[in-house]
Amino acid sequence: MGARSLTGRHELFDAARAELTARPGVLFHGPRGIGKSTLVAALTASLTAHAPSAGTVLRCSPAEEDDRLPFVGLIDLFAQVPESCLEPLAPEPRAALRAALLRGTEPTDDRGRLAVRLAFLEVLRTLATAGPVLLVLDGLQWLDESTADVLAFAVRRLDGLDVRVVAAERVADGEQAERLRCCPPGTTELPVPPLTDDEVARLVRAGTGAELPPDVLRAIQDTAAGNPLYALELGRAAALRGPAPRTFSPVLSVPRRLRTLLLGRARTLPETARRTLLVTSAAARPDLTLLRAAGLADPAADLAEAERLGVTATDADGTIRFRHPLLRAAVYADAPEHDRRQAHTLLARAISEPVEQARHLARAFPHPDEDTARTLMSAAESARRDGALGAACELAGLAARRTPGDRPADRDDRLLAAAEYACDAGQPDEAAEAAGTVLAASGSARRRVRARLILLRNAGQALEGAHALIQEGLRDAVGDPEAEAWLHHWAAVRGLLCGELEEAAGHARRAARQAAVAGDTETRIGALATYARVRSLAGEPVAADAALEEALALAGGADGGPQSWRLIRMRAILALDADRVAEARGQVAELLCLIEEFAGVEEVMATLVLLTRIQVRAGHCREALHTAARCSGATAQAAPALYAAALAATAGGTAEKARQLAEQAVRASEADGDRLFLLRALAVLGQAGLLAGDPQGAASAVEALQRVRELGNAMCAADPPLLHWYGDLAEALVLLGETDEAETVVREAYARVTSDTPGSVLAALERAEGLREAGIGRAKEGAAGLRAAVDRLRRLPLPVELVRTLIALGAVERRSRRRSAARAVLGEALQIATRIGAAPLAARAREELARLDAADRGGEAGTGGPELTPSEARIAELVGGGATNREVAAKLFISVKTVEGTLSRVYRKVGVRSRTALAHAMAVAVLASGAAVDPGNGGQADILAGPDGETAQPYAGPPCSRHTPLT
Fold first, then answer.
1. Average pLDDT, the chain
2. Strand 133-138 with 320-322, pairing
3. Strands 25-30 and 163-170, how do they pair?
4. For residue 60, what are the β-bridge partners?
5. Please, how many CA atoms are within 13 Å of residue 140, restricted to the half-sphere of its CB?
6. Is the per-residue pLDDT at 22 higher than 70?
7. CA-based Rg of the chain, rounded to a whole angstrom?
8. Residues 326-335, buried b or exposed e (16+ Cβ, 10 A)?
9. Which end of the chain is more exposed for a tag (fewer CB within 10 A), N or C?
């Protein structure tokens, strides 16, 4: 059997094979279609493929019509047994067996039946002396009683014989096998469980060779309930049927042969009972009260016979359940179309809940009708108010399809409503289809503008290519101030995401002016919020705050409902950027509680992403991981969700996981053309490289953060996060030995510092400066700078930044032989990191403390001077091995000037004046330390390990670059 037939069954198959090495048999059991026969066939094929050629396989696969035919199973088992195997039997058993096999007169008395059993046992013994025997019994539930008795007699007497049994029996869900007596004592019972949804999806794709629409696949998964036979039959029928018109939920085509298999006896029920079953199948939540309200006289009596046949069950409270979801679908599909419509008509009259009533009404009248369309649209609006966004989209779409052809304006309005609801529900395909239909066919310029607005919203972060859509909309909007305001606002959002800040500011101002002329307060608020975001990114917090306050006043303050949600988020961003973390956290936590049940996907996503940022800065690392997971649950592959997950991983996960997620976020942002989130994703990628703590990680960080610097310059951005990332870039450059370039970056950042620049940015730049000072051999000045940064951060609620700076200070103190000071700050860093759950930083602190411990154990042996930094150690290793400065620069992706400057510092530290003397000093260090020499490394292994045991890490250069909207 191929892997396809065993989809979702490999573990069970392996377990069965393992059991048969120690047990005399396995018995698979489960309901119809669950895959028992597939497992039996696969296991049999596997066993016979590895058995000796002399082995014997006896098979029987009885059917339902066989169970009353005596010895038919025995006849099947002996189909491959030659007559010569019966010859050694004693005359009476041989005659009885031949009679049972219809080769003589059938035995009727007890003595004759016993003779058959003894004969069968003796034949098994004879066959087993020649080689292993495998009994394959597929379908024990239909095995005739005569054969079952023979098997039960024989299998109890097989001790010492190489006879194994592979059997299968159909049982109802949750029931035990009833024919275990036909298997040897010690046989393992293996229930065959339902497939998971993912396994059903794989099975259907493999079995149909088609990619079914997601809603159809979901309906198959729900209806098949993990049964592979049902799933394949439904999938093949759906693939043959092809695309179907969208309905409230897909109505699956249940093939006739599947209906016959399931409903054979149910079709014999009286007419009234079949009608009751149909109405029950059409109801979403059927119970006896509803059926009586639908006009059925005595539904309990009608369903009693269906329950006896195993079709339905009625609970004590009157709730009615089908024994399997496919039974419900089969009953519905088996009825004529006229009867189905009548059932929905009865239910529409009996149900008062608007959404469910509309669902039945739409199916009762599947043709254009304005009254039906109005009812559906009213239900859609009700569902939207209740937060049932998916239902609202479906109902509005149905309303559009039920709108008569002579009412095109009503049809377009309903399609636009369906598209807006689909956007809210996170269903971009449905939104694009509905809006695209209006855009292509509507004669109304304003409706075409509305359709374009939905397509813009539907694009999410991917607005880079939306310029033409906006310009076409502006042409349609000429003379309509409200429509012009809408489109200028979207042009501002596009400019913001694409990094065109000045252009975005201009569009935002025009949008606000046109919205004021039109009296469109909502758009005016949105435009002011976008303007505030642009100004904050440009490093103008005062202008941003002024625009935000104006927008909040128009919205009615923080309690202004949905219009104020984005403004509250923007206010929290400004507070976070200004280091007012507690204020930002309080605002966002309150907002999330307010909107989660009512807002669309974009609102919730934007709020969760911001909450992740806040939690990381506040040192709530474990909570940040949880919040980021919620983002992924909403839209796992969207750039904002990937960014949030990567950021949380830098705080509470691992550097490697952060790197992987950040690379995905970079690729997603580049695909969208979203430069705003590209900046953030690249910054997180750089932070992940810094967390690695080695030259390779530093090179990766420099590559990412240089792109941040370039993008920021192109955007004319100067907000606090960008200046903070400049500090990260300078730190990474120092780790690579690029101290001159690091100084340039720090000076560039300081040139943008103003009186409003928050303390966290100043601390990040001080940390970078301190590391640079230490990197050029001024350890005392470097430590002083780092202590200043630590003192500044102690006054701020930013424990992650404090831990980073303490670790940097500890490393500098350790390399300068101030071990007590190093141990104190590193111990504090580890304590804080452990408390807040900052796992990557805790690991870094432990590594630094481990180096201190190694130094304590090694005493003062060594060079006696300050040890080499990782970048100095790597350069010294390459130069000592004979590499030229240019070769070193090429290998480490740094400049020749940097190699020269670093080599000068190495000479001073080691106390030599030439490359030859450096190589000699390194060799002496090897002999003194007893380090092993790797011949494949030019004889230079661990030579640059410092006195405390630190070893320079190999470096292979940077990896290849892999590359409502959230703002």
1. 85
2. unpaired
3. parallel
4. 137
5. 30
6. yes
7. 38
8. bbbbbbbbbb
9. N
Nearest to 134 by CA among 168, 162, 96: 162
Both tokens of residue 204?
């259907």
In this structure, what DSSP letter does residue 319 have? B
Residue 368 contacts residue 403 (beta carbons within 8 Å)? yes
Instruction: Decide: helix, strand or coil at residue 548.
Output: helix
- What is the rounded average pLDDT of the residues 639-646? 92
Cα–Cα dist 101/80, whole Å:
12
Q: Dump strand ranges (E) for 152-201.
A: 163-170, 188-191
pTM above threshold 0.90: no
Yes or no: say if 664 and 649 are a contact pair by the CB < 8 Å rule: no
Asked if residue 569 lies in contact with residue 607, where contact means CB atoms within 8 angstroms, the answer is yes
- Give the three-state DSSP class for 26: strand
CA 882 to chain centre: 50
Predicted pLDDT at 565? 85
Phi-psi region of 132 (alpha: psi -120 to 50; beta: other; left: phi over 0): beta
Q: Which residue do the tokens 């340039």 mark?
A: 744
Do the beta carbons of residue 514 and residue 506 sit within 8 Å? no
Predicted confidence at residue 480, as pLDDT, reads 92
Strands 56-60 and 25-30, how do they pair? unpaired
One-letter amino acid at 239 equals: A
What element of type H or E holds 57? strand 56-60
Percent of the chain whose predicted confidence (pLDDT) is above 70: 89
User: Which H helix or E strand runs over 733?
Assistant: helix 720-735
Query: Is residue 542 exposed (0-12), middle (13-18) or buried (19+ Cβ within 10 Å)?
Result: exposed
Residue bearing tokens 């009503």: 410
- The answer to whether residues 797 and 775 touch, using CB atoms and an 8 Å cutoff, is no
* Top-confidence residue, 862 or 354: 354
Q: In whole angstroms, what is the distance from residue 255 CA to residue 208 CA?
A: 15
The stretches of 173-316 forming alpha helices (DSSP H) are 197-208, 214-224, 228-241, 256-263, 271-282, 288-293, 299-308
Task: Determine the 3-state secondary structure of 56 from DSSP.
Answer: strand
Judge whether residue 945 has pLDDT over 80.
Answer: no
